[in-house]
Amino acid sequence: RDDSPTNRPAEDLLARLEGGGEALLFASGMAAAAAVVQALRPGDHIVAQRAMYWGLRAWLEDFCARWHIGLDLVVPDAGELRAAIRPGSTRLVWVETPSNPTWEVVDIAAVAEAAHTHGARLVVDSTVATPVHTQPLALGADVVMHSASKALNGHSDVVAGALVAADPETDFWRQIRDNRKEGGAILGPFEAWLLLRGMRTLFLRVEQASANARRIAQHVRGHPKVAAVLYPGLESHPGHAVAVRQMHGGFGSMLSLRLAGGCTAALAVAGACRIFQRATSLGGVESLIEHRATIEGPDSPVPDDLLRLSVGIEDAADLIADLERALDAAGRR
Ligand code: PLP
Fold this sequence. Notes:
This protein has 13 helices and twelve strands. The protein has 333 residues and is α/β, with parallel strands linked by helices. Helix 4 packs parallel to helix 5, helix 9 (202-220) runs parallel beside helix 13 and helix 11 crosses helix 13. It binds pyridoxal-5'-phosphate.
């Protein structure tokens, strides 16, 4: 169950891309994250970033409460993290950078230092950055996690997850490997084959999508109907300075817009786009737009004027024209 001649080449490639000692593929990003958390014991404690993929945050809150694992959700600067760490019981620090849906940038090296000082391990969800832009292991992380359903595969036709360890000889990683094997969370070989196909064009796709996202961000900032553009590549973004240090070759393909006209305007713009498709995934070759607060439901902390854009590899001028047309049409209703 835990090995396949089709999965191995995809895992080996991913380990090389991340500069790690070993990679493991999982049936989904959530299965990969669960294998990490299930390597802890009741009584252990996790410090995690508050702003992260909401599905994972919801699962963490539920699982940790039921399995008596302490959980503190914090703003991920090294000072806040240090304050939240409980020496002796904090085993895991979990961050996502850039993080959904405001693209907060976490200083991985600073957080790694804080975690390691207290004997905790740092896991970085690098789904949005991809190994093209950031290599968390080189910055001190112990494990990198990916929803490989996203940019690693890039064609929106696979659900997969991945973990890459800096050091595969630790008890922590052995437990994760056992969790995958005994819990049956392995990726099917057909999906591994599709993922390998996707990774062949990883750099081409991600570089093009990041360049498109940057052009769009620069173009729409200052638009009268756009109250704010959230993109780490813009100097106005609070994480820009860290992003410049930590991200290479671009700032990723994800950005969010906050609409001056609030929720009504946001829904109208999403509905008026023709090239940007209304769908909830990210990191594919096609551009997507979504109203996050609707997707996350009534308890969502995401402001209802926010639209999340996953920028694809189409022509940037076409994407900009599509957005401008949608912004214009929304204003006329
Ligand atoms: N991490 C991030 C940043 C994500 O966006 C997602 C999915 O949207 C996940 C993890 C979960 O991955 P999967 O959908 O492959 O289970």
